[in-house]
Amino acid sequence: MAIKVGDIIPDGTLQYVPYDPSEALNACPRPLEYKIHEKLKGKKAIIFAIPGPFTPTCSEQHVPGFISAADALRAKGVSDIICLSVVDGFVMNAFGKVSGSKDKIIMAGDGSATFTSALGLTQDLTKNGMGIRAKRFAIILDDLVVKYVGVEQGRTLEASGADVVLAKL
Q1: What range(s) does the Thioredoxin domain occupy (predicted)?
Q2: Which is the catalytic residue, given 58, 67, 81, 151?
Q3: Sign, CA torsion 147/150/65/130
Q4: 51-167 falls under which CATH superfamily?
Q5: C-alpha triplet 114, 118, 122: angle, nearest 5°
Q6: Any catalytic annotation for residue 58?
Q7: Which residue of 24, 44, 45, 165 has the lowest C-beta tally within 10 Å?
C-alpha cells in the first residue's frame, strides 16, 4: 500500500554525498548516510523521486525544475529538497555534479529500494533493463507527516513537478 497524506514517513537510510564546491568533477567520495527521521524531524521537506538518473525526463525536466524552484521552495519554509532514485549514492553524486544541483538539492540513492519499497512506490522496469526502480513522485513533509503525495502515471510532471509542489505548499 502506498504512503498517503496524514501518514508518518517511514524511517529509512539513504546514501548521499554533501555538496563540496572544492571537489573535482571526477572525484569519487564515499557516500554518507542520510537518516530520514533524524534529518527531517521538525522540518518541512520535499522528497521527489526519479526512475533513473541520466534518463531524458529526469535529466531534462524533473531535476532542472527543482533546481530552478529551490529558492522559491525555501522561501515557503522548505529546508531540505531530496532527489531520490533507486541507485547507489555514487551514481547520485555523479548525477548531481552533471545536473548542477550543487547545494540546492540533496541527491540521494536508495540502492536496494528499501525506503522506496516502504513507501509503496516502486515499479518494475525489468523489461527496460532497469530492474526495480522508484515511481516518479513527490512528497511534501512537515515534521515527518506527509502533507502531499503526487505520483505520476507516465512520463509527465503533472503530479510531481516542482511547479506543482510549489503550488501545494
Answers
A1: 3-169
A2: 58
A3: positive
A4: Glutaredoxin (3.40.30.10)
A5: 75
A6: yes
A7: 24
